[in-house]
Fold each of these.
Amino acid sequence: MTIQAERPAHRERPSSGKPVASDRMRAEARLGQRLVAPAIVLMLLVTAFPMLRALYLSLFNYSLTAPDDREFIGLGNYGVALSDPLFWKTTGVTVLYMVVTVGFELVIGFAFAMVMHRVIFARGIIRTSILIPYGIITVVSGFAWQFAFSFQNGFVNNWLPGISENFNWFGETTPAVIAIMVSEIWKTTPFMSLLLLAGLAQVSEDMIEAAKVDGATWTQRLVKVILPNMRAAIMVAVLFRALDAYRIFDNIFVMTAGAVNTESISFLTYRQTIEQFQIGIGSALSVLLFLSVILIAFLIVKIFRVDLADARQEK
């Protein structure tokens, strides 16, 4: 009589074709949830009440000049905001700030990241020098660039060829917007380069050397090897900076105070709430700003289509 060993049950793959999460991935997911749980709870405690309060006040016709005349109007404030051409004008200006600054920061920041990654001599000094602008308070850098673009005692007009010494950068919309963008790019490009430097560190040197052996040029190595392997880092850098740039306020407040059509959505919200005491419409604008930020984050994640498990080489 022969005893046949019992064969282990055969596990069929799911018909959906989706990859099965390994034990390591599940353990890392549980660990990540436990690590971020305290921060999430603290953030909810700090931000939940202001957010819910803003949502509540946005449903009322409420002004601090007449606090006893508060009237419930439902979504009326949202209708006023969305039907006002000023809202859409400031939205267009805000999107322009975001697209242009993030685009320039991505290119310049990547160049800085390549320098910091490849440099051998005085690496610490070079990295520190590149990151100095990010350590300066935004208000201070805004005042510095306002002085630099001043036609009375600034140096930009003297340094740029073809620009009159008496040219007023803050007298018209286009040059004022350019000045604000320059100050924003100068201030936050180091942050972008820092995120991209972390992505460059994850690119395998063996893959780059193999591409060299195959005769790939520097441009081909950049397009075919480096950038595809940095996709997750690029998405994070663009996501963080886009959300921050869309909420731009400090440089506008310092350099133009919203004059000559340079105000953003954040500045419009500030002006309605703080300067004109319109709490209802200001709260509605803040809610619309929050929803816009969520939409931008969703679109960026969808555009890049980064699979984080694949980026960690877990498949």
Amino acid sequence: MKRILIVEDDRSIANLQRDYLELSGYGVRIVSSGREGLAALKEEAFDLVILDIMLPGMDGFEVLKTIREHELLPVLLVSARGEELYKIKGLGLGADDYITKPFSSGELVARVHAHLQKFERMKERYGNGAVQALPRLQIRGLEIEKEARMVLVNGQEVSLTQKEFDLLLFLFQHPGRVFGKEELFERIWGMDAMGDISTVTVHIARIREKIEENPSKPQYIGTVWGAGYKFLT
């Protein structure tokens, strides 16, 4: 049985989360402060942590920093603060997901299940020790596991072709910089590659279809008319 630690100072919310998780077959422990959460992680093994940000004394960001110094398990941040700044900070500190209150218990269970599955896949491929060493890039719900060549959007794995992955990774690693189609073609396909630079446009469109919530209004790969493409910061 997978064990879930809930760190939440609102007992009614925590109890509701526990009830739905237990109905889904998970074992659950609830604590009401960050320090209690860290102590619980030392006392027993958990498979995933659901961590509220607004906690008494030690807030969720501080707890997350400490967890990431010692633990590999998935951490899902929850908060009533939906501002992008909070999400960026949480994901930047190593959170695997950020859920804004109020949310349905069904959504929470689905996200818990997805992240546990993802973590198990990583352990199967690389072993427990290797998971920590895998470079992970993330911003606004988009995660790129470089060595595993995995892309996830809001915790859900998406399937990219080799060139789609290479193109997305290249733009991600140069945020805000505009690249023309010719340069992208040379960088990703190689100077001696056979083909037409229009393939860059096709690949960008395919990537957007897979990672953007609304491909016509992209939040990750933007078009600079007459110049090329850039990763949006």
Amino acid sequence: MMVDHSLDFYTLDDLELEGKTALVRVDINSPVDPNTGIILDDTRIRLHAETIIELSSRGAKTVILAHQSRPGKNDFTTLSQHGEILSAIVGKKVRYVDDIFGSNARQSISRMKAGDIILLENVRFYSEEVLKRDPPQQAETHLVRKLAPLADFFVNDAFAAAHRSQPSLVGFSFDMPSVAGRVMERELRALYSAIKSVQRPCVFVLGGVKVDDSIMVMENALEAGNADYVLTTGLVANIFLWGSGVNIKKYNRDFIKDRDYCDYVRKAKKLIKNFPDQIKIPVDLAVCVEDKREEYLVKKLPNLPIFDIGTETITEYAQIIRQARTIFANGPAGVFEKEGFNIGTEDVLNAISSSTGFSIIGGGHLAAAANRMGLKGISHISSGGGASISLVAGEKLPAVEILRESALKYRLN
């Protein structure tokens, strides 16, 4: 195969796989119906199937590591169903092993033949996986110490989780050559290309409920001078409204408090003070009144749940977006799954799609909405929201940095 020596990390093109054992980290974290436990969307599973099929067809013994949700969430479950779906997609049996690194898992790996595929249990069932530590410490975990001796290569295809420093993402690269899978490779090519050619004005559109990622990105982008405007939507907007002194009423304040996000309100207040011209917050919002949409100016909000940005805000944001030369967006503008409250998310996406600038949409719900709308004008829809936006904001992704270190340590060609 032709090897691309312009990359500073290895890819599958650099490996001879016949008869070798590859540990493969993917991100097949999928939405699950809380009532039935059934997976609602298999997009991510289909995405990573490309890497898995290639490994198996080239004669590798493919051992898959993956996670589903996190402890305490109602979709924190086994990977049994994921294995069934993956088997149907790749066209051959993917054996699910309800063990992570115990004797059952290790024996299953040692008995594999060339081309076999197994899926180990949800790595987040293991407590060390969710601890935040530096990569050298993660390399000393039981997960890595038990599985590393059984493998020849580590393949990281989990771009969507690349901003996390967890054992299954960064620990194995200290003990064996590590390469990027096809999803990881494709994402990094697209994003690094975008970063090198950023044109101004550059606009960040940040929403959704993952406030920690959005505020980290906002801080980095603004302090580095990379963002001309940051448009806030979703829960991010509510926090910035509160931080700016707007009375978002008890219901919405309690929603923020219940998620231990009060520290982010203080951060928002500081950011607004330091970057008043760049940060845009809604002037009106849509609340849920007896299951229906009603809009109010932010100064006249009733004590009801905020479910979307309002029409005046949408108009203002759309004007800024259409004038942008580079757009990075992550997170929906509201509860877009609920009828009547999808307007903000869809109008923002339509504005991005109709812009002549280069645009990147983060993964998750916003990507799902864009795909469902069938939009053609978006330059790149990423598989990972937090990871993609963190990268373009100047953050180094632990899982990517460790791939670079591995390329320096091991010579494969």
Amino acid sequence: MRATHEERVLSALRAYGALSRGDLATRVGLSRTTMSEITAALLQRGAIVVADTDAATREGSGRPAERLVLDPDSGQFLGVDFGHRRVYIAVADASHTVFAEGSVRYPDGTAWSERIRLAMDRIDTLSQETGVHFGALQGIGIGVPGPYLADSPGIPAASWMHRLAPEGVESAFTERFGAPVVIDNNTRLAALAEALARPDVVEDLLYLRLSDGVGGGLVVSGRLVTGSRGFAGEIGHVTADPSGSLCRCGKRGCLETIACVPAIFQACRDAGSHVDDLDDLARAVQRGEPAVDAVLREVGAAIGRALGAAAMVLNPEEVVIGGDIAHVAPVIVDQAAATLRYELYSVPSDQPQVVRAAQLRDSDGAFGAVAAVFHQSPLLAGYPDLPPAERADPSRRRSVQ
């Protein structure tokens, strides 16, 4: 109940600006005693501050009343993207502007308790670096790897997902920040962010992200698709080579075993090129190393075949390949597009209009997590987008619709 009252108070201050406790009590429909308790807690946390008093406009005698406002340095919405080997964090205000972001890496297989600790530490560091605190958080969006149903009690029962299950994630963030939490698959959230990144929102999108793992997302008629058990868009676990390497899911030859970033690095090393990170790969691409080019084209072809099967069934408006490696090694996207065109040759009128690299980079999942909170929050239903002229300096801030 207290969280609901606080949310209503913060919403009123966002909508109307500076208000006295009495005005707040009237607008929110709470007693003055309850309002005093709620505002005292919000002031103590730094969610709101005293702007001034109503002395200039007050009629009659009596002590001037303090007027309260949202702390301009308070973050309003938090997006967290937990990947297999890193967590990315983005903080946005109510105008959908991302004003703080950062990431931290960890080894694959790290326990969720440690992932959560690293995320919290990074959030604290962002607060110190930017001067922003999180007392006024209205919502938290969290992306996790693997199939996930936001309205289910947990991950579908499969041994590999039990190892990745977000144990204690929701409770940790709820207890720390006292704000509602929305959890979904991180690549599905990245697909949402990509669909919303363009001026003309893409209604039907097939999205594939190449990162420490390989995941996918579907946007159909402007809505994210989960499927019956959260597996919709899991293109990374489509079999690409039945006799291939063992995948984390227990099968052999999943697309992820060929097209995830660590697998691409290893294939380049096996071909005789020193590639340990994206910078090494970028230099090899710039030098035009034949062995690396052959590896990347083979990966692109495998991706194109998997996407071709999905596109034949779904007939999307756009097919997008995300992840930093799609920009570092564009030949992957080019080869995937060429293979996809071949796969759909028999139905040319149904080919996707665009096959492209994603506009967003490694931040896409965190941006999508923020976007999911915006679109699900009843406080922001119908909230108008700011016109371009009123947006913050684009050189310093980034926007999530």
